Here is the input.
Amino acid sequence: MEHKEVYIVLSDTGSLLTRIIKMVTGAPYNHVSISFDASLHTLYSFGRKQPHNPFWGGFVKESFYEGTFKRFKNTRCLVLKLDVESETYALLKANVGVFVENMDAYHYNFVGLVGAAFNRRIARENGYYCSEFVAEVMEQANLVFWETPNYLVHPYDFTKVEAFEVVYEGLLAEFSKA
Here is the structure.
């Protein structure tokens, strides 16, 4: 059976908002994205729609070379790789594809993020935050790594999954040179 690779990218831009989140969580990374190519040309997540406005968020296609990552040039990242069967890969891409096709229908679930900090679910229709989104699309492809609900999965929880292989850790801007 043919295998493909999926990439999980944890990041820390160093912005004021991420520094506050870091103080609360104590985790070195506070954002997570998913990608389907080794060059990480396109990543998918829930985050800022505009680099200068942390409060306007939703489903985003991210790039190392534009948007928020371009604005925060000293962004640190951890890149994880997961080998999956072709069918699982196709399911993951299809799951993310639903979000891509309906991009404007989704929004960032700020209140849900606050609730998660207190182990409480505050659901909003079509609302997600980054780790909830990545955990959700993985679960829909039968990739379940946690016993907790997706809304309680935090970005740093991805580092605790043995199935993921660390590919790179360091400055995002240096990734393509690694």
Notes: The chain is about 30% helix and 30% strand. The chain has one domain: 3-173.
